[in-house]
Amino acid sequence: MSSIDGGRVRKLVVACDAGMGSSVMLASQLKRELRKLPVTVEHHPVAAIPADADVVLCQTGLAERARAGAPGAVVVGFRMFLGDPEVARVVAAVKQGGVVVGTTGS
Question: Taking a C-beta distance cutoff of 8 angstroms, is the pair 6, 94 a contact?
């Protein structure tokens, strides 16, 4: 299981199957929540995750594909685009300097 100190996160990517729709909505929410921090938030299709991503948030069913496409990133799977506790955990760790731990399984 991979991890990164939240204070070291500089690029957070929200990935989905096509890179549109719900991922755009979640990325916009995260941009607002993290706007005062030196963190770039982007959305991309799971097949086109940038190599410099520190953390990738994606639905649990896409986590293995995200890990394969971004082996250097911490991949956190979630079930709901809005209000998911895994997403809240990542945001809290980035804001407060906690540890972002990747999830396992799908």
Answer: yes
* Count of other CB atoms within 10 angstroms of residue 1: 8
Looking at residue 99, what DSSP letter applies? E
DSSP character string of 44-77: EEGGG--TT-SEEEEEGGGHHHHHHH-TTSEEEE
CA distance linking residue 35 with residue 13, whole number of Å? 15
Q: Please classify residue 72 by burial: count the beta carbons closer than 10 Å to its beta carbon, then call 0-12 exposed, 13-18 middle and 19+ buried.
A: exposed
pLDDT 10s digits, 89-105: 999 999 998 999 998 75
Q: What does the DSSP 8-state code read for residue 13?
A: E
Which residues are tagged catalytic?
16
pLDDT digits (tens, 9 = 90+) for 61-87: 999 999 999 999 999 999 988 889 999
Largest distance between two CA atoms of the chain: 32
Residue 15: phi and psi, rounded to 5, are -115, 140
